[in-house]
Every structure is written in C-alpha cells, then in structure tokens.
Amino acid sequence: MIGEKTSKIFPVSLLGAQHPAKNESDELVLKGIPSSPGIAFGKAFVLKPEVLIIPNIQIPPEKIPNEIERLESGLQAMINEIQTALDKVKSESQNISAILETNLLILNDEYILNSIRERIKNCFSAESAVIQEYDNQIKFFKNSMDNILQERSYELEHLRDKLLANIRKKITSYKIPENSIIVAQAITPTDVVNFKESKVKGIITEAGGIASHSSLLARSFEIPSVIGVRDALKLIKRKDCVLIDGYAGLITINPCDESKKLFEERISKESSHKRELGELIKLPSITLDGVPIKLLANIDSPDDVKSAILVDSDGIGLVRTENLVMSLKRFPDEEEQFTWYKEIADRAYPNPVVLRAFDIGSDKYLEGLPHLEKNPALGFRGIRFLLHREDIFSNQLRAFLRASANKNLKIMLPMISTISEIEQSKAILEKCKNELREKDIPFDINVPLGIMIETPSAALLADRFAEVVDFFSIGTNDLTQYTLAVDRSNELVTDLYDTFHPSVLKLIKGIVDAAKSRKIPVSICGELAGHAAATNFLVGIGIDELSVPPVILLELKKRIRELKFKKAKKTAKDIISSSSSSDLMKLLEII
Amino acid sequence: MIERNVTVRNRAGLHTRPAAALVKLAAKFKSEIFLIRDGFSINAKSIIGVMTLAAEQGCELVLKINGFDESNAVDELAEFFESGFGEQ
Question: Looking at the domain A287-587, which fold is it?
Fold first, then answer.
C-alpha cells in the first residue's frame, strides 16, 4: 500500500517474535527470509524429504554392471524431467531456461559422471557413489567465502537428492491441489516450474537462500515465497490454512478469524491498488527513442521496501539510515543495525540498495548528540560527525558490510566536501573489512562506495572525486541551499530557495559530465528528481538514475515514457545557456 | 603448452551462468584446458570444476592449455574473461 507507514521500524525478528507461543485459536506465526514478494493464502501441501541414504554401501563385483545401469537410467529419467520443464518455459524467458540448462550441464558433467562410475567400479552402490562424488564437490562450495557460491552448494545438494530419488525410482508423482501453499525442505528449479503449472499460491522452504535459482524462478513467476523457515515441516501439517507474506517473510498457520479477515483485506486492497496503478507497472522506464532511465525509491525503513516493490522500482536509491537513530533516540549497536540493513537488503533482493551512512546534524538534530550549534547546516554534520566519532562510524560500516554478502548493497557517504574525507572513510572501511576477514565473516569485498554530492565544493571537484569513488548521488535540496546561501528552513528567505536556479542546474550538469567522463553511475535523490518540470532537463543532461519516493515513481515513469532523449538533450543545452530566468521558466515549461 | 594469467572482471564473479558459458566455450576446443587458482587446478570443461574455483570479482587465475588448437583457445578464453563474461 502506497504511503502506508507503520511506526514499527524494527523487523519482527528483532523483537524476538521468532516462534511465538500459540494463542487460543492455534494461530502460529513463523518468520523466515522473504524471497519472492506478494501475499497469498491457501492450504498447506507438505513435501516430505527423502530418507537419508548411507554413503558407503559396498556391493559384490558381479553387481557392478547392474549398478552402472541403475545410475544411467536414473540419470536419464532426471534429464528427461528437466527437459520437460525446459520445454514448458522455453517461450517464457531466456533467464529461466538458462537456469534449467545449467542444471542439465551439471548433471551431464562428464568428469563428475566418470568419477561416479569409477566409484561404482570400486564396488560401491550407485547411490553411495553419487553421494561420495557430489559431497566431495559440495565441500568446495561450502568453504567458499563467497555467499553466492555457498548458495550454489544447496543447489548441488538438491540435484544430488533428486538424482538419488530417480536412481531408486522413488519419484512419486503427486497431484498438487489448486490453491496450495507448498511446504518443503528444499526445492529445485524444476520443481518451481511444476509448481507454477499446478497454480501453486506460495512456497515455504526450510533451506535455501535468496540468491538461489529456485528463489529467482519464484520471483519471475511471481509466486510469493518465504525461505529459511526453521522447523516448517514439523510445524506445518498437510491442509493447514496458511497465510504467506512474501514482503516481510512472515507465515501465519491456522490464523484466527481476525488475522484471516485482516489478511483478506490486505489482499483485496493490494489487488485493487495494482489495478489502479495499471499497466504502467510492468512497462519499462525508457524514453520514446529508447534511452533507459533507472527509477529507484527513497525509503526510511524495511517496511517501506514493499511500496518500492509494488511500483516495480529498479531498487532502493537511498535508505536514510539516520531514521533508525531518530526512532530509537540513541545510536543502535552493530547487531541491531545489521538486522535492520539485512532485512532491507533481503526484501529488495536482487535489486540494489544504497545505504547512506548516518546523516546526523543540521535539521536532523539528535538530542544530546552533536552540540547545539548556531548554524547547524554549516556545522558538525554528515561525514564530519562520522569521522569525528570513528566508533559510531565503524559500527555502522561493519553492519553495512555484513549485510552486503549477497552483493546487492552499496554504501554512500553524506556531506562530502573534500577528498581527504573520502580517503579517511576508505581507510576506516578497509579496517572494518579486515576485522571481518579475521573473523571469517562473509561480506562483499567489492561493495561499491559512493558519495552524496550536495555541497558546491563537491560539485566543483566532481571530476576529481569521480576518480576515487564508485558512484555519485546528487542531493539537490542541500546543493540548492548551499549554492544560493539560502537556509531552506528560514521562512524569511524561502522565496529565494530555487532548485531551478541557473547556478544549481549548471552545477548539476557539471557533476553529471564528470561522472560520465569517468564512466561512473550518477543518480539524483533530492526533490528535483521527482519534479515534473525537471524530468526533461535531467534526462537531457544524461542522468542514469532517478531516486524518488515510491508514491511518485510511476508518474515519473509516465513522463519519461513520453520524452524523446534527443529533444530533451537540446532543451537541456538551451536551459544551461539561457541567462534570463523567464527564458528558463519557458524552457522548463513552468509557465 | 600455453599459460596465461586472466582476471575475473564481472561483479558477480564466476558463478553458475558464466561458468556454464565458459565450459561451453572450452568444449569447442580439442586441447586440454585447465584453470588454476592458487595452485588448485580444475578441468575447464567441467562445470562443477569451474564452479568449485569460487572465483569472485578481481580473482586472478591461470589458464593452462595443451593441444593443437591451444593458441586459438587461449585467445578466445582470455578475451571472454576480459569481457567480464558479457556481464557487468
């Protein structure tokens, strides 16, 4: 729901609601990782996992040909199964078939197959040989420091188990009733294709990760999904009524009448809301002449991610992390921050999320913290405060890094005005990375580091800053106030506060040019990004990304889809060279 | 026999999809093709082998190729690495 805002800023997991006690109606709420957005309810369909097989069953030598034959026919059956799924999705999308094709490549890997055959020839049963060889390979994946590669170990495990079931001819073909919510230990991409055929409403698994191919398929088929739900198979029984919330990662089993009613209201609200937004949602953000502009969302809390997903944003362009401080009225510790950032990263996955370090000070004054200043906007705020309080800054950077393991986070520094502020921040970030490395904690070693450009000093030095950072985001509100020397909160001068002032537009153009010449992405996250009159100009100067509140994202997309880049480029040029304010207003089509 | 150093350029690293594409490319050549990371050597025609390298962005590997079409193979494979496997 757009504009919906709850006061609860913490995810449920942080409040200790993991597996709360049953109430009178037997309602039980479980928390997992949201891996595919959407909400639904249906009846549980529980898939029991295969019984474990012992990996070292010996066979007499005369049985070897028989075991080889069992391996080959099991393999062939499984290949056929994947091939059938592949034929079903061929027309859907290349990404989807690519996933199933890699599964085929893995199964057909000659080096692995030969090694399995060798093991059988050394008098092991077909099942034992498969387990030994796969587990040998899985070990390497599990030892990787790379989260996504660790993720692939689960996929190998699923393939191994499916292959074992095929060898044992234990593939029980089941018919899934309509409106089912699948509950399983783990699932393969082929399963997801079959679930879609059976019009499954939702998927709940105990294992798996958001970067897994199965999660990716659930997202592309728009099947709400929650993974990593501990004890799901134990707690959910066949035909239990289940509500699944793929935005927040929550599952309600046997909901009481009130929960059910609330949930039904949410579903109908969401579908009517989607209808209102219309077909614009699924259309690409692209100009008439084919230039793509990424549209991202500015948010303040994990709950806001849902509004960003509903309008189909390309990611989160700005998370104002200081909101966490404001709501707690103190600085959160590393653990609290990690949970909060991870929740946002998971909910938005696979889209990118830009986390801005605490921008404390100025109008975001925190009681008892920075000093009472005469002129806070020109004072102890943003990066100045963070570099002074290295303890707070390091805590935040470590929490950022720990939440970055799935590689969809970017870190952004606020209020940069000199190059030494970037260098000092980089040194602290490096220190934090080393601390995590020593503890074997996974994170994205190449996590992009960018800066806000919101002071005239940064704007004028943008070409130099572009050499040392990975991206820019222009904060037009502060840039305007500092360029025009107008305090935007002082009502005596508010009429002088003009984001469309030629000086501001000229600075923005310079920043974009600097970013382009160093080939780093540049976005705008200030109010100007969503301003109807600015879209033409911003597209015309070559901006790559605009980040706006989710509520106005679709309007912006509509405007972009009506623009011609070539024409916008010319208008932008005229705007930059116009000297009179009235000419400018005409060009911007404000009058 | 030819050896050449290559670097993983794409952001996501040598994960499943690039690994699949790399294996398919390697399979085009008759030569034996190995990829070595920190002394750990795998057959570049085995997808599971390539995946076990767990090569992330920035990771340096050695291509070791032996066979009559080795010079074509090394050029094409090195270029594939350089292009970031066609990803960002």
Answer: TIM Barrel (3.20.20)
